[in-house]
Amino acid sequence: RAIAGPRLSYPRTMPRQPRAVYWVVFLDALLMFAIVPLLPGYVHELHLSKTQAGLVVGIYSGAVLVGSLPVGYLAAHVGARRLTIFGVALLAVATFGCGFADSFWLLLAARVGQGLSSAVSWTAGMAWLSEASEPRNRGRVLGTAMSFATVGSLLGPVAGGLLGGAYSIRTPFVLLGIITLGLMVLVLRAPAAAAAPAPVGVGTLVRAVSRSHAVVAALVMMVLVATVSGTLDTLVPLRL
Question: What pLDDT digit, counting tens, does each position of 17-37 carry?
């Protein structure tokens, strides 16, 4: 008989990650930009002015800005996993809302819902992902999530344009709403993280950020990029 060597047992160095969060941020970014090629169709069908079209695009980011702080507070007290599940459910409802909106106000409300769900994805979702990762692996894990979001933002206009051109401007959001419901099942089945660290107060966080010139410069750059991007996403499709 062949002599079998000793069985090697590898210690589990990292808890199971809720990899569904990768797909949450991917779909979130995709839906944010999917409306860009469809905007002229909405302007024509709902008789939107350029100001209203700009609000439809910009309200998404505005809802993220307003919702991020309270969502971060709730994530620390309610639990990142529970809040992420709620965010994905809200994303599904809001996406169907974009597909069936028949007025400016309904479309605007649906975009607000998508923006609030995005605030959940980028706070509670990323917090859940961070809690489930060892400190030495967090950079790689969060970087992977950012890569998924980047790919989603690139594919959003492509998916919206192809489906909207082949069928109707409503079709992309109906199909993506169905996909979001499937994603919610994956999120429900994702493993919970270990105990979360103690929450940090807003004042402590602001002081820590203000002492770092690199973080302040990064925030300024993000605001500039978002402003330019939002302007182009609104005016270029209308001009074309």
Answer: 688 899 999 999 999 999 999
With beta carbons less than 8 A apart as the criterion, state whether 107 and 47 touch.
no
Would you mind telling me the total number of residues written for the chain in this entry?
Answer: 240
pLDDT digits (tens, 9 = 90+) for 48-103: 998 999 899 889 988 988 888 888 788 878 888 889 999 999 999 999 999 999 99
To the nearest 10 degrees (0 to 180), the angle between helices 20-34 and 171-189 is: 160
Type of residue numbered 132: A
Q: Angle at Cα 117 formed by Cα 232 and Cα 84, nearest 5°? A: 140
What is the chain's Cα-based Rg?
Answer: 20
Measured CA to CA, the distance from residue 159 to residue 146 in angstroms comes to: 20
Structure-token pair, residue 93: 């409802």
Q: What is the DSSP letter of 238?
A: H
Nearest to 16 by CA among 143, 134, 95: 134
Two tokens at 172? 């992309």
Q: Which of 69-73, 192-196, 212-216 has the lowest mean pLDDT?
A: 192-196
Q: State the virtual CA torsion across 22, 24, 30, 35 in degrees, nearest 10.
A: -170
DSSP states of 36-50 as a string? TTTHHHHHHHHT--H
User: Alpha helix locations (H) across 121-212?
Assistant: 126-131, 135-166, 171-189, 202-210
* Contact assessment for residue 47 and residue 171, using Cβ atoms and an 8 Å cutoff: no
> 3-state DSSP call for residue 170?
coil
In this structure, how many other beta carbons lie within 10 angstroms of the beta carbon of residue 74?
Answer: 18
